[in-house]
Amino acid sequence: MLSLTRQILTGTLLIPVLLIPTISVAFELPDGDEVARRINARDEGVAVARNLTMQMTDRRGKTRTRETRAFRKYYGEEKKTVIFYLEPSNVRDTAFLTWDYPNADKDDDQWLYLPAMRKVRRISASDRGDYFLGTDLTYEDIKLETRIGLEDYTRKTLGEDEVDGHHCYLLESVPVDEKTAKELGYGRVEQCVDSKIWMVRRAKFWDIKGKQLKTSHFREIRQVQGIWTQHRIEVENHKTGHNTLFIFSDIDYQHGVDDELFTQTALRRGL
Amino acid sequence: MRRVLLIVLCIAGSQTALGADPEISNLVTGRWGSGIEKVGTQMLDFAWQPEARWRFDDGGRLTGIARLRWQPEPGMRPSDMERGTYAEVSKPVLIGDNAELALRELYYERSVNDWYMTLGKQQIVWGKADGLKVLDVVNPQSFREFILEDFDQSRIPLWTLNAEHSFYDWLGGDWTLQLLWIPDRTYHALPKQGVTYAFSSPRLVPQAPPGVAVRLNDPQRPDDGVLQNSDAGTRLTGFVGGWDLSLTYLYQYHNQPAFHQRFVPGLTPVVEVTPRYHRTHVVGGTFSRAFGDWVIRGEIGYFTDRFFLTDNPTDTDGVAESAELSYVLGLDWSGLDDSFISAQLFQSWLPGYQAGFTRPEMDTSVTFLARRDFWNDTLIAELLWITKTNDGDGLLRPKVSYELEDNIEIWLGLDLFYGDRQGLFGQFDDNDRLLVGVKLGL
After folding, report:
1. From the centroid of its chain, how far is CA B341?
2. Would you call A99 helix, strand, or coil by DSSP?
């Protein structure tokens, strides 16, 4: 006891004690790549079918609603996604198909079916920074579904935060170069990643000039058939005042998705 | 008539004996066009297009689409179109001079073993070109508004048996084989002489010498032998190594008749013109692929036994035969956010060209399209320019459309023809128009 008191008084014990919190934080915070790896390793199921409602509201409060049915399936590391528009009638039967390859050097293949043309049109996959059919998410956002484009960004963990009562790691991602930043339309992304389930709960985006662009909130995250699933994404574009609400429903991971849905023929036939 | 009315009643929303509640939707379109040179209403058009879809427990699906159109402006009325080009089974029903009721589509589709069968009246769209057609010739087209009407509306659906079979991992790609049998002998719908978009170019219609009258006979359609006079075709589409590819073959009556002529001398000499349809073999292919911001696409078609107008004095009936080779090469660029720019080169070559043909041996067109989306795709501005380099004539189409509500779209556009009146576009130089429209989905 005497020895302990002496040590406190002389400071030999004081220094380690003061260091404990700092060491503890540095030890507990996973680095950015580890957070990204954890997000991407999250179980998404091999295939999923779900309804997706998109409500787009402009700065004057005028709302447009799109009802869709969306399917996604993994083939090893290759991912195929297809979205069929169901309502309203003027966009019904519009369909979008993307084949996403794991090799970063290989462009994704994308097709769009426009019922007015009755043709499946090949579209450039480099449009990934373009906004997806009038929403506030880009083609790349839609494709990644909150996963991380590992090759597009460098990452670091900034600290901790809390969103909707859930503890999060703050992950900062910066495009690897100017060209990539222009392609993506983002100069910086800050995501709040749930430290327990590795789901992104909030994402803030800055444009390539450093101005705050938009904020996304991922809400109503709960397990569906054992898989953590977001049911609501709210995106607010700070530049335009436009916002989009994505609502997922009728989610099914268990019954599989027919391979033929991910073909140009299926785009043409519709659901 | 009774059949069409029955279909419309079904589509309009009645509960049917089909055993399933249909999904019903309605599209209502209104357009008003004002002439620019000839000031005043050129076109007033209202169309109601109900659509119903029934789904069955066995996976089958029945789709019906009707169209009731009212267009009272003389020169653009339904009664201003030649009706002899339709097969009886596909002919729209005239209601007075100003209205027309058509069964646009009615088809049943379902998988049968490894085949996907679509039976009934439908549209078949081949090809990769925009605004111009090389291989998109399976269905005929209405030229009521020349090429100004949306192809989805101007294309004439045909009664068709359409069978498709997909197979995977063959020759390094995924493929779909399509087989078509088309017993419906309906061809291009052409405007009557003298109406607003009647053809007058010597490229397309015979020209009578001064003082000589023209008598246009009814078209000579293939006889009633359904089997021997059907069209048939096949297409193999595939995705290999990043390329979308297709090979096509079509055996059809060319949808555009040849205008065979006969001079009838007398006190009042007459040139008698008889439109006649001829068999043609069409062999073709398409491709498209994306490279970064660019998409390259194209199609090529070789057509046998085409007939072209000739003013060669030694010719006996004013038409001469040649094969035709046509292609389109298109380049799309989307390197700017919310923007799309596209250019196409279209050429048609006649290997059997003869002196006296009223069209050139090599016919060249160029198209340019620039489009930009604003306000989260609610406002779209675009400019389409089509020009024929042989004659220097063309068409400019600026258009702005706005999504007023979820289901309401309005637009304002101009259709501006220019060039020599002998040319394909120049013949309509007096038809420049300002167009406003509204589309309502219900």
Report:
1. 23
2. strand
B267 pLDDT band, cuts 50/70/90, is confident
How many structural domains comprise chain B?
1
CA distances from A174 to A125, A144, A152, A181, B433 (A): 21, 16, 8, 8, 51
Query: Which domains, and CATH codes, for chain A?
Result: 31-269 (2.50.20.10)
- 3-state secondary structure string across B360-383: CCEEEEEEEEEEEEECCCCEEEEE
Q: State the residue range of the domain holding B197.
A: 2-441
Cβ proximity of B32 and B436 under 8 Å? yes
Q: Are B139 and B122 in contact (CB under 8 A)?
A: no
**Helix intervals (H) in B62-158:** 151-154
Interface size A-B, in CB pairs within 8 Å, comes to 107
pLDDT score of A90: 82
Give the DSSP letter string of B263-285: EE-SSS-EEEEEEE--EEEEEEE
Q: Do B25 and A269 touch (CB under 8 A)?
A: no
Q: Which two tokens stand for residue A259?
A: 């391979």
Residue B111, chain A, CB below 8 Å: the answer is no
B281: tokens are 């073999």
Write the DSSP symbol of residue A16. Answer: H
CB atoms B290 and A265 under 8 Å: no
Which tens digits make up the pLDDT trace of B21-65?
899 999 999 999 999 988 899 999 999 999 999 999 999 999 999
B407-416 b/e (C-beta count within 10 Å ≥ 16 → b): bebbbebebb
pLDDT one digit per residue (tens) for chain A, 271 residues: 434 444 444 444 444 444 444 444 445 789 999 999 999 999 999 999 999 999 999 999 999 999 999 999 999 989 999 999 999 888 899 999 999 988 877 888 999 999 989 999 999 886 678 888 889 999 889 888 878 888 899 999 999 999 999 999 999 999 999 989 988 999 999 999 999 999 999 999 999 999 999 999 999 999 999 999 999 999 999 999 999 999 999 999 999 999 999 999 999 999 8
From chain A, pick out residues whose CB is under 8 angstroms from the CB of B290: 107, 109-110, 122-126
**CA neighbor of B310 nearest in space, from B253, B259, B256:** B259
| Separation of alpha carbons B312 and B62, rounded Å | 52
DSSP B39: T
The nearest CA of chain B is from the CA of A148 a distance in Å of: 21
Cβ–Cβ gap A90/B377 under 8 Å: no
Instruction: Tell me which residue in A124, A136, A265 faces B295 most closely, judged by beta carbons.
Output: A124
Which structure tokens are listed for A257?
């998705």
Structure tokens of B55? Answer: 């789904």
Q: How many CB atoms sit inside 10 A of residue A105's CB?
A: 6
**A36: DSSP letter:** H
Reported as half-sphere exposure (CB side, CA atoms, 13 A), residue A99 has a value of 17
Distance from CA of B293 to the nearest CA of A (A): 5
> DSSP secondary structure string, A217-239?
EEE--EEETTEEE--EEEEEETT
A104 within 8 A of A93, measured Cβ to Cβ? no
The alpha-carbon gap from B338 to the nearest alpha carbon of chain A, in Å, equals: 6
